[in-house]
Amino acid sequence: ATSESGPKVQVKERLYIGNLHPTVDEHTLIQLFSRYGRLTKLDFLFHKSGPMKGKPRGYAFVEFADAEGAAKALGACHDKVVRGRKISVTFANQAPDYSTSSRSRPHDVKTTALSLIKTSNKPRGTESKIAALEAKLRQLEREKEVKAPEESTVGG
Description:
Blueprint: E1 2-3, E2 6-7, E3 10-18, H1 26-33, E4 39-46, E5 56-64, H2 67-77, E6 81-82, E7 85-86, E8 88-93, H3 113-119, H4 126-155
Keywords: RNA-binding
InterPro entries: Nucleotide-bd_a/b_plait_sf, RBD_domain_sf, RBM18_RRM, RRM_dom
Protein name: Probable RNA-binding protein 18
């Protein structure tokens, strides 16, 4: 199958993990998959809007340092029961590159520091990921602080 960005390319170091139980978190996935090789990236996806905002989407991506670790994990974990659900593990397809043309970017994609890390094809260190997460947390805390004084003055 081809699209604007060309044929889909499987990434042999990156796995898609689907059908995750809502209680499965990043820590659970790290514990499960790190026994098969060194993990270099974990993309754990959440709903960005709507009634499910902030809740897990039920799937994630795990990236290994090498294809051998990913292949071992795929063989061992596909159809494995985790918290009562049979998880689906497959090789991930390369994400479309939206950075080349703003016209090809879907309208529902909200770009934040965190989503830039997730969509970037450039290798990033753990420190930069942590910095981006901390920046996002500070932004959320500022938004919360702005809302809190308004709520307290309305009731009084």
